[in-house]
Specification:
The protein is an alpha+beta fold. It is 17% helix and 42% strand. It is elongated and about 100 Å long.
Length: 132
């Protein structure tokens, strides 16, 4: 009786290892990236040509908020954009816009002013510039 149980256990053990004892898997698929077509060489996307390169907030002469935004042009020709400055404070949103032409390879500075107390804005406000 014990032989029959032993043979059953051995058979089940060998069957359980059946999938583990096969030949080692070999890699499949290409070994290197495909060549680019000769008529269309690969080019990487240089990204946007107009970017916000810097911005800061400070107090103006009257104690309000002054936001200074610097826009850089990475293109080889002048570009025009709309700069938007959004100030969030005390559950309110204040939006200012200005159109600027930025020279090729150059920068342009935009200044927005808001009638919000700068000291209070520093504690509980946010300024977000964007380009349209």
């Amino acid at each position: 009786m014990r032989r029959r149980a032993l043979l059953t256990a051995l058979t089940a053990g060998v069957a359980g290892l059946g999938g583990c004892l096969g030949p080692a898997q070999t890699a499949s698929g290409p070994r290197r990236a495909p060549d680019a077509p000769a008529s269309a060489p690969r080019e990487s996307d240089p990204g946007p040509v107009l970017v916000i390169s810097d911005f800061r907030t400070e107090a103006d002469d009257g104690g309000g908020v002054r936001a200074v935004v610097v826009v850089s042009n990475r293109a080889e020709s002048a570009r025009t954009t709309t700069v938007t400055g959004t100030l969030r404070f005390d559950g309110e949103e204040y939006v200012r816009t200005a159109e600027r032409t930025v020279p090729a390879g150059g920068t342009s500075q935009v200044v927005f002013t808001y009638d919000v107390p700068y000291e209070a804005f520093q504690r509980n406000g946010a300024f977000v510039p964007s380009l349209d």
